[in-house]
Amino acid sequence: MGVLGIAKRVLDTTISKNLGTFIYLTTFRCNGTCDFCCFKNSINKKFDELSIDEIKKIIEKLPEIKDLAISGGETFLRKDIVEICKEFNKIKPDELCLPTNGIMTEYIAGKTEEILKNINYKLVPTVSVEGMEKTHNKSRGHFRETVATCAEFRKLREKYPEKFDFKINTVIRKDNIDELDEFSDWVYTNIKPSYHSFELVREKPCHISDMLPEVEKLKKMKAVFMKNSKRYDLGYGGGLRTKLTASLNSALFDYYISIIENKKALPCLAGKLSTVLYPNGDVSVCELLPPIGNVRDYEYDIPKMLKNAKIPKNCWCTHTCFQIANVKYSLRGWNVWLKKILKAN
pLDDT per residue over 44-85, tens digit each? Predict the structure, then answer.
């Protein structure tokens, strides 16, 4: 998305009712064992998951949504994942982010290709890898299977260059921060994703602040973060868009540190720019806040549910999905970003 596209999104979120980012957690079933999972109290418990017919009803009442994320649990444990992705053609997303732990290599690769044959938008799975083999296995397990899935994704990228790519995401924690410099180099050289993102372990609502590294260590991590940001051009060819992305990432990193130190963030656009749909039909403006209701009680009309949704005034978090949007697509966020651009020049 270029500067004009971002400017349009700012106007959309300021004066229109369009949803920018839609996060659908299809299932809380998972074959992983992550010790830092935000939904660990819900994982593998029985839920009355939305059926494909109910999903169709929800999509019929959604506006066009540019950024779509289908997550979990482990998303690929939904046997109807191909049909779910196909139904989202109707809202014309630019891209689908599909997080996965990558454990079921052959199955995931097969389902991914099926999805690609049934969608009109770009598919970008994000594979969770937490460090070198020993570190990853300590928190998630199945390192070699996950790496094998990335190899299959590289083959799909060659086969579907305009329609498919994949990313790596790593959660920054006390037990992996010291090796992330080495690890990021290893990912760049061996995994070859389109991008390798980092996000802080979520303090809220997980109550696992003991996993968050000390602020001084996080500040030193910025050099690794920026080195990593600059070597992936995200297909922009090293031009202005690449530089803008690097400046955005620099602003975001400093912003995250400020949030941790001050327990304060920009006014949140959750509900205006983003919405979360849970496996059982609950809807929230953010994964960190309680549901505002259930679609089954509102004739599957999410826009109607959001009309009176409110964000607490003193709400703050370091949740990447929402804070990137707050900086990138709000006028106040542009002020933060612009200062970083001017300083760089």
Answer: 888 899 999 999 999 999 998 888 999 999 999 999 999 999
Distance from C-alpha of 39 to C-alpha of 65, rounded to nearest angstrom:
25
Q: For residues 59 and 66, what is the distance between their CA atoms, to the nearest angstrom? A: 14
**Positive or negative, the Cα torsion across 246, 247, 250, 255?**
negative
Residue 196's DSSP bridge partners are 168
Does residue 1 carry a pLDDT above 90? no
Residue 84 belongs to some domain of the structure? yes
CA distance 197 to 214: 20
The DSSP letter of residue 266 is P
pLDDT at 2: 47
How much helix, strand and coil, in percent to the nearest 5, is found in the chain? 45, 15, 40
Closest by Cα among 299, 301, 270, 296 to 281? 296
Q: Assess if residue 190 is contained within a domain.
A: yes
Q: What is the pLDDT of residues 86-134, one digit of tens each?
A: 999 999 998 999 999 999 999 999 999 999 999 999 999 999 999 999 9
What CATH number is attached to the domain comprising 223? 3.20.20.70
> What is the model's pLDDT at position 299?
97
Residues 6+ apart with CB under 8 A from 49: 26, 27, 78, 279, 280
Domain extent for 86: 19-238+269-314
- Report the amino acid identity of residue 10: V
Q: Which residue has the higher pLDDT, 159 or 12?
A: 159
Q: Are 277 and 25 in contact (CB under 8 A)?
A: yes
- Alpha-carbon distance of 73 to 43, in angstroms, equals 7
